[in-house]
Specification:
Blueprint: H1 2-14, H2 24-28, H3 34-43, E1 47-50, E2 53-55, H4 63-73, E3 78-79, H5 81-87, E4 100-104, H6 112-115, E5 120-124, E6 138-140, E7 149-151, H7 153-162, H8 170-179, H9 185-193, H10 198-210, E8 232-236, E9 239-243
Helix pairs in contact: 5-7, 7-10
Length: 245
């Protein structure tokens, strides 16, 4: 029994990557039951972060493994909007402790054990006509197998624009659009064609034209869901936002 116990502890400390949060399913692969996990917590061999979430003592949690765990619990979860643009180097200001913008299909709250370490905001948003198991232009960051899901720059920009008038200042969005001069026109066109927000489509076209960006000149508004022939009007903290058709 002592040998089996030692083998399980050795596996616990060697078979999982540093900084990885552990859940009962992970522990079960090592033969560690729920009761044994409680014993390990009491003995100081495991640290309980929340109900059903653990880490090894003195193990600083890493962002990528934590996001991979959240992806298992939130349908369609991915890094998007301003955060995804920042990961690709499209930014205006460097915040000392930036908020990580996460998007998903289901309502919920990011757990405290995560936000205490990585300040984050979760947005339940269905901006595109798509399926949560096959999100448009969302994939592992830098195509790495151990990386979390993240929006492509083109999708991230539209997610950012969808927040204008709600949580996103217009001026900052305008500056970020001006910095996004290398977007792929074909990818952006596909996303706009599947976009369910008239405001987002119109705002993308308008800001792209204002900045005379290369991708803007290739987008034909006639082929995009820009809504009716009437202006789109909304009042926010930025003032009155008027988007022509």
């Amino acid at each position: 029994m002592a040998t089996t116990h030692a083998n399980k502890l050795n596996a616990l400390y060697t078979q999982f990557a540093p900084g990885m949060p552990l859940v009962p399913e992970d522990l079960a692969t090592l033969g560690i039951s729920a009761d044994l996990a409680v014993h390990y917590v009491r003995a100081g061999w495991l640290t309980r972060l929340a109900r059903g979430v653990y880490c090894r003592p003195n193990d600083a949690l890493a962002l990528y493994p934590c996001l991979l765990l959240l992806q298992r619990r939130f349908k369609g979860l991915h890094v998007g909007g301003k955060s995804a643009l920042d990961w690709y180097g499209v930014r205006q200001y460097v915040a000392q402790q930036p908020v990580l913008h996460l998007y998903g299909w289901t309502a919920g709250r990011v757990p405290e054990w995560f936000t205490e370490r990585f300040p984050a905001a979760y947005h339940r948003k269905r901006l595109f006509d798509e399926h949560p198991d096959a999100l448009l232009h969302v994939g592992p960051f830098e195509n790495r197998s151990d990386a979390p899901q993240v929006s492509a720059p083109e999708r991230a920009l539209l997610e950012l624009l969808s927040e204008v008038g709600v949580r996103q200042p217009l001026q900052e969005a305008r500056e970020l659009v001006e910095s996004a001069d290398r977007l792929r026109a074909d990818v952006l066109r596909t996303l706009l064609q599947h976009c369910t927000s008239v405001k987002t489509v119109r705002l993308c076209l308008q800001l792209g034209r204002e900045a005379a960006l290369p991708w803007s000149s290739t987008l034909d508004p006639v082929t995009l869901p820009t809504g009716s022939s009437r202006p789109w009007v909304s009042r926010s903290t930025d003032g009155l936002l008027v988007l022509p058709p």
